[in-house]
Design a protein that fits this description.
The chain is an alpha/beta fold and 112 residues long. 37% of the residues lie in helices and 18% in strands.
Length: 112
């Protein structure tokens, strides 16, 4: 188990959770691939900035965290996606510590 340093990570408000949770290179069985795990809040950071075109400050407000905390989520997500695409790894979207924005249900993953 990882030792937690500093303050606990505050739950992020997430507006959309994915229906599809795996992406992989075509023609290679999933069992033969290494998997990169992307959390739901990292995906939300990518969606808000790269799909919706929000500035990081505005996206951080929507997610309910500081600009720095949002930047860390976005940086981690971009690194994981770039790694998976450039090295032929599968991407799994799972877990995290987030609140659904419209329902305010808290979803926590013990692995985070």
């Amino acid at each position: 188990m990882k030792k937690c340093r500093g303050r606990p990570k505050c739950p992020r408000r997430v507006e959309q959770t994915p229906d599809i949770t795996y992406f992989k290179p075509r023609g290679v069985p999933l069992s033969d691939l290494e998997v990169v795990s992307l959390t739901v809040e990292e995906l939300e950071a990518l969606r808000l900035v790269d799909v919706e075109g929000l500035r990081q400050e505005d996206a951080a407000v929507r997610v309910g965290v500081s600009r720095r905390a949002f930047w860390e989520d976005l940086k981690a997500a971009r690194l994981k996606v770039a790694l998976a695409l450039s090295t032929g790894k599968a991407i799994e979207i799972k877990g995290g510590n987030y609140i659904r924005a419209e329902t305010a249900d808290i979803n926590e993953d013990a692995d985070s």
